[in-house]
Amino acid sequence: MLTEDKNQTESLRERLRLIIFEAETPRGKAFDVVLLWCIGLSILVVMLETVKGLDAEYSRILLILEWIFTGIFTIEYLLRIWCSRKPLKYITSFYGVVDLLSCLPAYVVLFFGASSAFGVVRALRLLRMFRVLKMVNHVKGAEVILHGLVRSKEKITVFFFAILLLAVIAGTLMYYIEGRQPDTSFTSIPKSVYYAIVSITTVGYGDMVAQTELGRFITTLMILTGYAVIAVPTGIVTSEMIRMQETDKTSDACPSCGVHGHLPDAKFCRRCGSSMDERR
Amino acid sequence: MLTEDKNQTESLRERLRLIIFEAETPRGKAFDVVLLWCIGLSILVVMLETVKGLDAEYSRILLILEWIFTGIFTIEYLLRIWCSRKPLKYITSFYGVVDLLSCLPAYVVLFFGASSAFGVVRALRLLRMFRVLKMVNHVKGAEVILHGLVRSKEKITVFFFAILLLAVIAGTLMYYIEGRQPDTSFTSIPKSVYYAIVSITTVGYGDMVAQTELGRFITTLMILTGYAVIAVPTGIVTSEMIRMQETDKTSDACPSCGVHGHLPDAKFCRRCGSSMDERR
Amino acid sequence: MLTEDKNQTESLRERLRLIIFEAETPRGKAFDVVLLWCIGLSILVVMLETVKGLDAEYSRILLILEWIFTGIFTIEYLLRIWCSRKPLKYITSFYGVVDLLSCLPAYVVLFFGASSAFGVVRALRLLRMFRVLKMVNHVKGAEVILHGLVRSKEKITVFFFAILLLAVIAGTLMYYIEGRQPDTSFTSIPKSVYYAIVSITTVGYGDMVAQTELGRFITTLMILTGYAVIAVPTGIVTSEMIRMQETDKTSDACPSCGVHGHLPDAKFCRRCGSSMDERR
Amino acid sequence: MLTEDKNQTESLRERLRLIIFEAETPRGKAFDVVLLWCIGLSILVVMLETVKGLDAEYSRILLILEWIFTGIFTIEYLLRIWCSRKPLKYITSFYGVVDLLSCLPAYVVLFFGASSAFGVVRALRLLRMFRVLKMVNHVKGAEVILHGLVRSKEKITVFFFAILLLAVIAGTLMYYIEGRQPDTSFTSIPKSVYYAIVSITTVGYGDMVAQTELGRFITTLMILTGYAVIAVPTGIVTSEMIRMQETDKTSDACPSCGVHGHLPDAKFCRRCGSSMDERR
């Protein structure tokens, strides 16, 4: 009897594991979709809590919703620990920590109440926003972007270095030129470098602007140089994706050794040298 | 006699259908061009109606023009119903609804007059602006863009997800850092997330700006990260279009050896040298 | 004697024509470079004339410089008419009109003096700025960009249409939402459409900003949609240039018929069918 | 004895040269990393010196750190002169001048003190920021960007010319239209051209904005035209990088039949099937 019970529990655990951790089965997919909605709505609730006007009226409803979502995430977290084949590895993994942070701060916040708006409790309240990171696990194709970024990591670093170099030099020049004006906003080099980065990236808030003719001239030069530099990283990722696509496109496998990715006009396999004419 | 009449009517209906629904015949093209001009001018009239200074002087002319365009669109709508082979399908289609909305609100507005500026009538007045959607049907190549967007739909979704993820995390951080400043504009998380999106997309209105050194530092990091993420979707659509172009260029096979990928002006196969004229 | 004179004049005219109209000879190149400097400096002079502080001090020098440049451009214009094989065709051509407008307004302005700052004279003074168009004729590679733009003309039109469509719809929505706010800057649809275009293109001046939560939400949606649409034209021109490059790359000519632009693995000429093995 | 000493010194000089000038050996790499950190921290120190609030508290620590970094850069500079095979060539090279400017201004500044904030000393203080240029020598891949920019130098020049052309014409128009408004910021053509460049590059600070309907219309046209022009240089660099990549992929020829364009992992020629191992 006891062994049977154990077996039943084991089989339930295995079935739950498939639903919660895998997305291949229909139930697994449904679980993913429901969880995505819960995360999205939960973030909306935390966002609305901070709006001044709305908070007074709807605070009760928001509080109840927050309780519900915290409950769901807590149950999900406990089930994941129970189902997982290697619970410790899950708990210490990135997603394990994110899952814990999705429910833990809520309890602390609900315990202390919304009264103490600043300090540690305020930080904990906002920590709930990081539930958005739970989504990464459930959105298909998120790794495609991550992969693309990781593959061109080195080149992106060099690009950031180029922007920083330009920003430091242009920022220092702007600080030297504009810093002497009476009502200047270029009061320090860090602020001037911030101005340079905001300009090079074409954001241009307008909270800091050049007041002298020379300052405007340097700004113009800086923006145009930034344009030439910025065209490069766009090209990096584009060419990276075209290469990935090309490898996909020549997807015929060699009939002998099964290697993929031949050029479209290949007659012989490039790895084993056997004829590839059968494939046509 | 009656049958002849019917036949004549039928033939007229068919000819009208060719002019109104198809753009291949010269008359069909002329109809399209005239209609495009009417839509454009009609939108201009609705736009100018809302300008304070101009309205007083030209209001009479604008009113008359509005009557004329409404008349044209009404006749066009009725003719389309009469000509269409499946009138019900047309009426319930996207373009059918747009065509109805292009003339119906005008009557309600002209009935109530320009006096009641706000409320339902105001909404109806502005609904006339959606006449611009009628254009989609008449601009060649509009589907090319739509196709391109639809084909890379999934990847664009992932890209939007990446921007939202970054905006939610950076927005929350900015709210935590800047929200405590006395004259802050970061009064709620929704506003902070709006700030983050406006910054990441390099719009940068400047209505909300960081006031603290740390806030400016986070903003800089956020903008640069956004830059790396945004380079990706540009690459997506580019590579998509290059693939489409390549397929166009290389679709004919050699009738002798079956090799694909010839240049558009090829008369002889580049691999076996046999003539390729059969394909034309 | 007279015929000799005529011949000498004719030969001088021909030599001058080579220098002024062609850029192949060393003298022709030198002429181009000198003229480019004159145009650039002349524009600088006209620009500096409008600066309030500088004008008082340097006005005399600027006036003298302006006389010199006007003289140079007048002599150049007269020489061009004299040298040209088809003077009438040159005078009525785009560059002929630009060359005339580069010297004519200066005389009118110098005649009336700098006193009457506004009105027709002011317009004529500013017309001298269009001397910049003279440059197009002398900058190598300017046609490369023009060609690229002309070749993808249709697609760019469709892209502008897409932006306008989005701007009209989003602008109308913003006018409806924000127009009711007390201190709104969304006072008319044209202004709202201007706001929408400035936002979609990520310029974002910040002179008009959303004040309501809903307005900010619509703005966010509009910006993100604009991003997806804008990725397309970038792709258009990129793919166009890659295609041009690819044709350049396979630049081996057929040994029999001399046709260029074969694919890299071509064994037989695609136009005459003869073997191309000699080229390796 | 003396010869041995000389030999020892010579060998030490050679070993130091390998560490300081080359980055292949482990010690050379370590030297590079340490120097990069020193440069970065040194720049941070100079930046923080200009911040008003921080300076008072931490000025003593910053001064000590500045002494340390200046000492390190001085020793590095002297060692480089001593180690270099051609000291004069190093001293007069770009990196030699940058290395000198990294330590020299610090001595002048420390001698005069932080008291005289403006004038020559202020310029010298800021000159220390150019230490950032020392980094170029030590960051791998920085030349990749430089190479890419240099290779498409001509096309980038043409692109800048196109932007300037558009900016000059649009700026003049804006000056003519907006310059007559009472509270205009379009007070001169240089300012209007600055506005045009800031708009075309989508920076859009918002310190200068159109006030008239016509001014806003011209601005809209200018931005959209700029968009079409700006799509071109992005394409230029992208296509340049794709070409570089393709050359990397396809440079080995088959030793038997001479066909090029094999994939990087090819062991057998895809056209004749013979082994390609000889090439490695």
From TrEMBL, chains A, B, C, D:
Keywords: Ion channel, Ion transport, Membrane, Potassium, Potassium channel, Potassium transport, Transmembrane, Transmembrane helix, Transport, Voltage-gated channel. It is a multi-pass membrane protein. InterPro entries: Ion_trans_dom, VG_K_chnl, Volt_channel_dom_sf. Its main location: membrane. Coiled coil: none annotated. It is found in: Membrane. SUPFAM superfamilies: Voltage-gated potassium channels. The keyword Lyase does not apply. The chain crosses the membrane at residues 34-51, 63-82, 94-121, 156-177, 217-237. Residues 29-247 form the Ion transport domain. This is Ion transporter.
